[in-house]
Amino acid sequence: MNSTSKSTSCVVTGGARGIGRGIAELMVARGHQVVVTDVDGEAAARTAAEIGAAEGLAQDVREPASHRAAVAAAARHGALTAYFNNAGVGFDGDLVDLSEEQSRALVEINLLGAIWGTRAAVDAFGDAGGDVVITASLSGLGPVPGLSVYAATKAAVVSLATSVNLETPRRVRIHALCPDGVATQMVADMDPSGKAARLVNSGGRLLTVEQVAQAAVDLLGSRRVVRTLPGWRGGAMRAGALVPSQAAGAMALFAAQGKRALRKP
């Protein structure tokens, strides 16, 4: 299929598993030609075959050229209309406990990856425009001890979305989705006795991959720039950001709630 067909295409980074795979499945069901990318190229190809996507590619989102290659691959299957900057890593731990390699990976994958992907997509959208959806996090809206570097990268991509959305023509829409804790391998790998795990689990039952993927896809075509999931948690996080000197008490309460949740079978 070539780019002159009436088909529409999209790219989902970090799409071999988890939220990315959920997004890719929904986009395939909507009739889009989906290019699934992942740092694990074999997993990307396998996922693409399993869900009926157009193509699966190896991609290191830290490399700007990798996003241009993903856009070019999508264009071979149809007009690019959506780019999901979903790839990310989530090492937990206090700032002083993270290794230099972990800190660098958080910034380069979570932030630079979203920057390069957004730029490549905006450059590639045709006259019909399109949507960029960045998988951010609730942690990007307020203080999250135990996830300080991760939260900093997510706050940065929320800022990226709000700013670039005003830089682009109206036909191009930039969105940041900020979910609470999600039942993914990243969360499962957190230190269960650490601050991050307690805070992530403080909202009750973790969100499902399906819930987050649906929320990401639902942003397409909308004018909404930042969406929190669930909405009430967004208000609580923003309150902490407005008065950070008073946030310690709230964080302690959330951590206690999360500790109780982690004890439940």
UniProtKB/TrEMBL annotation:
Instruction: Answer yes or no on keyword Oxidoreductase.
Output: yes
Q: Mind giving the lineage of the organism this protein is from?
A: Bacteria, Bacillati, Actinomycetota, Actinomycetes, Propionibacteriales
Give the record's family classification: Belongs to the short-chain dehydrogenases/reductases (SDR) family.
Q: Tell whether Cell membrane is among the UniProt keywords.
A: no
Spell out the PANTHER family in the cross-references. Answer: 5-KETO-D-GLUCONATE 5-REDUCTASE, ALCOHOL DEHYDROGENASE, PUTATIVE (AFU_ORTHOLOGUE AFUA_3G03445)-RELATED
The record's listing under InterPro entries reads: KR_dom, NAD(P)-bd_dom_sf, SDR_fam
Keywords, A to Z, come to: Oxidoreductase
Protein name (database record): Short-chain dehydrogenase
Q: Which residues cross the membrane?
A: none
CDD domains named in the record: SDR_c (cd05233)
Q: Name one GO molecular function term.
A: oxidoreductase activity
- What organism does the record attribute this protein to? Nocardioides szechwanensis
A Pfam cross-reference name:
adh_short
Outline the extent of the Ketoreductase domain. 8-180
